[in-house]
């Protein structure tokens, strides 16, 4: 077949042209696939074209920060209107490219610390948001209509052929690289070091075009570390309710915890409260979860049989290595995380998602959107939604499904437990329960087609506050649902407007359960119930293997 | 193990004194509150952040106090200081066998300005009066807020200071040092450095505290009983009071400290110079192992205990 | 600072024993002093709070508290530094339990 461009191989031909430009621009600097750090901007100028879809690793934890900064140094007269694809906008340079006119369009999932600046840039017109996604959804589109032309990724190590070791922090890299490499795209990896032999091959060299050893190791955040010293009595009480009222009640063996102190409290009372309730071996056995340090005591106590992780967590590497029966580790001994697969696991293979939120409305719609900030969703919409494609059964799934469908003339099916856990009042006495989510106003402000709801009310099965648990599966109709929500909304205006008689009736039926109804003695809800009360305790529990990052240590 | 640090003042007292033996003076129902805070629109506390009284400790008649670190950081205002001074004076009047101070304080309560300053200085004087009366004073420092400012000085006026590694003892607070002298001088956000510099293990190695225990109320109780015993045993008379010899020994210790360590900015370097075999490993040693390791390496006054 | 007063008549459970104090006046927290008092069978509650403008919320919390415990001849005094209703209710219950030794 002649190597000539025809109407069917234009992408391939274009790719060859880009590579030729790169070779010419880098000259003798290019050694096989290795590019010297000093030539990274020249590489990008050669390889990119205006309007390209560029996927940059802004993962949740790791960041291809060297490549991200290099992007901001491009000449906008040569490279402009890039369409950026990022899982997470976490670093200032992720938005600097828009400020400088190098990029103009964005598709992403979560923006965390950049949420305020993102809102301003979007309002100013310098940045056009395509859509906000949940992670797995975004990865899916990489294979359909958002395929990256160029992928800028981060890896621990490369060998001289260009094979990559992404190790514990593999995260989003396989999904990004596969979509790019197999659609005539170009993959550029920044690596912490180049070695002769990798511990294992995570990304084969054939999928990678350029490797740039960066002057500093790639940036990484310990997002999932929670200091037990900050857990309050109220959070302990809510954790007790979650375990007794939901985990035990449904027999939840396979689960995902959203990020936060509320779920850290649950993790820390498994070896104490849940053990005393005789629940070891019956709940919390298989997890889709980042390696939370707060889970160490539960692992050591024998609750946890397996954990598959979206990413890693700084400081947990040695502990993970020493627990290969629990974590997903390679023959080399180090963990491999994989966000795409963990998200799939959370969607289809877990019976419960439990997480925190900022606002809930009267239908149970849950949102973390606040005015002036476009923060996105991360993985919650995926984890916190019923998996309608699921077909295998489990006791928890069947029980939830039959509660929801009792008395209805529909085909029997199960349902995923989706629990939203929130204190009725947040900081500065802001109520968590509202008649109308701030998301509506944000949508108007930002010109969004629909308000950014994180988890829809019809997927939420339980709402848990310090006042009790509302079981929405048992509600007949919208009015009952609304009153059940008001019934656990405490002294917020939403809670105060409850129909007292209806709520009492719901309580009689077990639709609303107070801690007393669950047989919980509130006097036990103290920090003494936590298996470990501080960071050093977690280190001790790990046998000295856990090494908390500096900011979490006072030693 | 029951954490001393996690408890408030009202949890520490019954855990340390003999069960049910503690009788509180001027308890919360007496409502002797700060006369100054209302002007500043700041809430008061019914006990002004300190519990004072007397009880039994290992059967001995011991007067005591516990500062509540949660209320204004344990800082000393007029009433708080007066309660301490009153308790100390009453300990002399009633011939107590010892005084035990569970200290957790940022020092002077700045809201109360001069009244706070005077209060702290009166506390220092009262501690020395108790010692002059032949009654040993034991200070325990193990709370999350540490013992700083004028109360740091007051703690060192005691015969014996008992600390956990979680406790901190110093005069100037870390933020104050950084603000005054810059972050290169002292990075107050480097928590590990802060604890290395002011925490119990460092103080023990330097000779500023005499006993290092685990963060456990049982350990603090046992250490307090032992400390009192050591000062009221056979050689008791005069053991509690300040002596010229003891002061001179302490002065000599301080001169040696400046001479030997004055140029060192990193506590681990000080420990290394003291002969500690593995300075980097000190922070992970449990209390008993640390004390065993430290034997023979501690600085301190040359002529025995004060 | 705001000072709020509540009085609930016709309680049925008198308090035994001595005054008790629970809680600490730290951020997001409160102290509750509870003691017997000759009030003609009523329960009086005085709240001094650093968080202004929440009178209606305090009223609702106190109403529910009284419905739970029905204390008579009891005086409760609170110094509050911005605790949420959840923490207020918890401390009130803890205060009563410290005197009565058990749940309602």
Would you mind describing this structure in some detail?
Chain A is built from 19 helices and 20 strands. The model of chain A has no long low-confidence stretch (mean pLDDT 96). In chain A, helix 1 (10-26) runs antiparallel to helix 2 (40-47). Chain A starts with 9 loop residues before the first helix and ends in a 14-residue tail after the last helix. In chain A, strands 1, 3, 4, 5, 6, 7, 8 and 9 form an eight-stranded mixed sheet that branches. An eight-stranded mixed sheet of chain A has the order 13-12-11-14-17-18-19-20, sandwiched between helices. Chain A has a two-stranded antiparallel ribbon with strand order 2-10. Chain A has 555 residues and is an alpha/beta fold. Chain B is α/β, with parallel strands linked by helices and 306 residues long. Chain B has a domain at 9-169 and 209-238: 2-enoyl-CoA Hydratase, Chain A, domain 1 (Alpha-Beta Complex), CATH 3.90.226.10. Helices cover 41% and strands 12% of the residues of chain B. Chain B contains eleven helices and seven strands. A seven-stranded mixed sheet of chain B has the order 1-2-3-4-5-6-7, sandwiched between helices. In chain B, strand 3, helix 2 (78-93) and strand 4 form a beta-alpha-beta unit. In chain B, helix 3 (113-132) packs parallel to helix 4 (149-156) and helix 6 (191-198) packs parallel to helix 7 (200-206). Chain B is globular and about 55 Å long. Chain C is an alpha/beta fold and 104 residues long. Chain C has one domain (2-100): Ribosomal Protein S5, domain 2. Chain C is built from two helices and seven strands, in the order E-E-E-E-E-H-E-E-H. Chain C has helices at 55-69, 85-100, and strands spanning 2-8, 13-14, 20-23, 29-36, 43-49, 71-72, 74-81. Chain C has a five-stranded mixed sheet with strand order 1-5-7-4-3, covered by helices on one side. A two-stranded parallel ribbon of chain C has the order 2-6. In chain C, helix 1 (55-69) runs parallel beside helix 2. The termini of chain C are far apart. The B-C interface holds B 8, 10, 27-29, 31, 38, 41-47, 68, 70-71 and C 1, 19, 21, 24-26, 29, 31, 33, 35, 48-50, 77, 79-81.
